[in-house]
Amino acid sequence: MRLNLTLKVVSSLFCSMLLTSVITVAVGIHFMTRPLEESIGDSLERVHRNMDAVNTATSQRYRCIGLALAEDGALRRAVAEGDRQTVQTLIDNFARQTQIDVISVGNAEGQVLARKDSQQAGGNESTLPAVKNALGGGETVGLCSISGIPHLLGAVLPLRGEGGKVIGTLALGVSLDKPDYIDLLKRINDLEVTFFEGDTRVMTSIIANGQRAVGTRLESQEILDAVLKQGKSATQENMILGEPYRSIYWPAINAGGETIGMWFAGVPVATLDDLRNTGISVTCLVSGGVLLVLLALSVLLGIRLARPVKKITAYTLAVADGNTQVQLDVQGKDDMGQLADALRSMVSSLQQSTAEAEAKTREAEARGEEARKALAEAEEARKQAESARREGMLAAAARIESVVESVSEAVSSLNTE
Fold first, then answer.
1. Which helix H or strand E contains 395, and what residues bound it?
2. pLDDT (tens digit, 9 = 90+) per residue, 140-163?
3. If you ran DSSP here, which 8-state letter would residue 163 be given?
4. Quick count: other Cβ atoms within 10 Å of Cβ 262?
5. How far apart are CA 314 and CA 321, in angstroms?
6. What gap in Å lies between CA 305 and CA 330, rounded to an integer?
7. With a threshold of 0.85, does the pTM exceed it?
């Protein structure tokens, strides 16, 4: 089957663009996978640093709030007097205003006077490092523990009375044994987050079978050795509750500088696969869209290129059939325009040469006719000459015969005599 010029041009352009698109997509997918893996590793390291920064900022925020609350005269008087009811009322009101998760107040002996939304009072905390430090006039900011809340992220501060004497302690912060702060970290980083005490999950955003996977243990001894024993962060792909995750683990260090557990941040491998597949799909869709646009442009280009070629072809065929009066409607300064001008010039020269040849032919025919007439006249003259010669010869013969007869008669007369 013969293809016209438009189809040939469009087919050639389309095949070239299709091949280019396929190669581009293939190369893009090939080189996208490795940078994506590297980017995930870098992102996990950034999440590590970001969460540490958030934890530090959170602790400092509670310290600042605690310092302001510690200046409250009514609270100091109630603590100094041991008025549990007044202390409870004051910290409950303050908690409603500031939305603080944990507020706990103790006296100079380390006894808990009041705690936000709790009737837990009377327990002695004087042996706990953070409370003991506050009773000695120091501040503990960061990860620490108070009675009933083994994992508090915040601050434990001294309460001072007249003359700067320590009259009690004030603890503010957020409990890592509850899901609120862990879920906040998940929303901030868009990753699953877990807090471990040792190798055991204290609180996590990972939900399995409708429940948070708390109380479960991390089974990877490699990670445990790197984080808990060596104090390093560990980034790897591992199984968590039967599902593969791309994860990072790093030490959870309390305010005293001791490693008490681990932090975890990670994303399911399936989510990364979805992200990669989405990237590939978007790349293919964009390439397909670009290919369709280029195909449309190639069709327009093919039509534009083929139109003057078709006109030139028709013009050439007409001239070849002897029709030199046909017009060629192709103009322009490009190659097609120059070709059309050359063809028009050639046909014009052909018309001129044909006209000259026809004129010479007519002239030759006229001269030939004149030659034929002259030949006929010469033939007629020759015939007339030959006729005249025969007649002359006959006349001469007759005269000679008459003379001969006359001589014969004379001779006869002489003989007679």
1. helix 335-416
2. 999 999 988 999 999 999 999 988
3. G
4. 25
5. 11
6. 12
7. no
